[in-house]
Design a protein that fits this description.
There is one protein chain. This protein is an alpha/beta fold and 361 residues long. It has 14 helices and 12 strands. The strands form 2 sheets. The protein has a 6-stranded parallel sheet, sandwiched between helices. Helix 2 runs parallel beside helix 3, helix 3 packs parallel to helix 4 and helix 7 packs parallel to helix 8.
Length: 361
């Protein structure tokens, strides 16, 4: 058995994306022969050279698929229009070869709602039709794509996982963290509307009127970066910092020095890798119940669930955390780490994934 895995550029120091972390995690533990096809050699260029690069990647991919050396093509995608338009190419070309197509779905707007566009609906149907099997992140997602798109191919449920050994080794090299009398809030990811960025900004504006016992650190990139910076720097001063994209030891240091992980997503999530990483490090998640997140975060047990598009609920939750006594804070932290350590580790994940590979051939 040999597997070809499609992937974006895996240099997480230049772009943000959970799929990058998923594929890097798979690569760290996989035991069957595999190659990774980088569908985007660099951060996407929207010019002539970028388009030429895309055409060259298509021909390179076709050459690999028809070489006869791969039994499975593992295509990672998300249920949004841009990803589906792009990844349909890899599904179609791969399906013309002898290889089996495994479609791995990582969230997206159309995971739980049908697109208004008839063309996009047709595209989704064709992608599922030309795949031999599908991976989703939870039973909830499986039920949704069956109900919405009547998928009849085998659908496997495989939640994301993290390589806790790698993370623990990296943390051990950092040494002790600095103590702070402030509750340290952190966001890591795409700074976009779908992630609830507007709700975070409004909640922090309200929170700052009630208390000054917190700081907020923002990591990542996206179209709302300037909006957040322009709003929060004047309001919080030194208690707010935008750090850009973070990876490697710098990411582990950022998480280790935080207390609360924010992700009040409005839509489009799957099972965020950054959430699992933060919880493994004992950070208290404050998230919405979007896609599969509610299967991991249990309200008042290992974190907090807030209402979507409700900055007042988010503010009230953060104020409760800021005013919490240390013992409750510690119990939530321990529970968050235990949740991931028990259920979302790469050593168990890869056994399940390779079993899916074996079933396909």
């Amino acid at each position: 058995m040999k597997v070809l895995i499609t992937a974006p550029n895996l240099d997480d120091s230049k772009q943000v994306g959970g799929i990058i972390t998923v594929i890097n995690t798979i690569a760290s533990v996989i035991t069957v022969p595999y190659d990774i096809f980088i569908r985007s050699p660099s951060v996407e260029q929207r010019n002539l050279w970028g388009r030429i690069g895309w055409v060259r990647r298509i021909f390179a991919y076709a050459q690999l698929c028809f070489s006869g050396q791969y039994d499975i093509v593992h295509v990672h995608t998300a249920m949004n229009r841009s990803a589906l338009l792009r990844d349909a190419i890899w599904v179609y070309i791969g399906s013309w070869s002898h290889a089996k197509i495994l479609l791995h779905v990582h969230g997206g707007k159309y995971l739980f709602e049908k697109p208004g566009s008839r063309l996009t609906s047709l595209l989704i149907g064709e992608i599922f039709k030309n795949s031999n099997a599908v991976i989703v992140l939870s039973e909830t997602e499986k039920k949704s794509i069956v109900d919405l798109y009547h998928v009849s191919k085998p659908i496997y449920v495989l939640g994301n996982a993290i390589n806790t050994d790698v993370i623990s080794a990296a943390i051990a090299k950092l040494g002790p963290i600095e103590n702070s009398n402030l509750v340290r809030l952190i966001f890591i990811g795409r700074i976009t509307e779908s992630k609830g960025i507007h709700d975070i900004v409004e909640a922090i504006e309200q929170l700052s009127q009630a208390t000054s016992k917190f700081r907020f650190d923002l990591y990542g990139d996206g179209e709302l970066k300037d909006y957040v910076v322009d709003k929060l720097y004047p309001l919080l001063g030194e208690r707010f910092q935008y750090h850009g994209i973070v990876s490697g030891s710098a990411k582990w240091k950022a998480l280790q020095e935080s207390d609360v992980f924010l992700l009040p997503s409005r839509y489009g999530e799957g099972l965020p890798m950054a959430l699992l990483e933060a919880m493994f490090l004992g950070k208290i998640p404050v998230t919405s119940d979007d896609a599969s997140i509610g299967l991991v975060v249990k309200h008042n047990v290992n974190g907090f669930l807030v209402k979507k598009r409700d900055p007042v609920d988010l503010k009230n939750t953060l104020l409760e955390i800021v005013n919490s006594d240390f013992d409750r804070f510690k119990l939530l932290s321990i529970a968050a780490k235990s949740t991931v350590s028990d259920k979302y580790v790469a050593s168990k994940y890869i056994v399940s994934l390779q079993s899916i590979y074996a079933n396909l051939i």
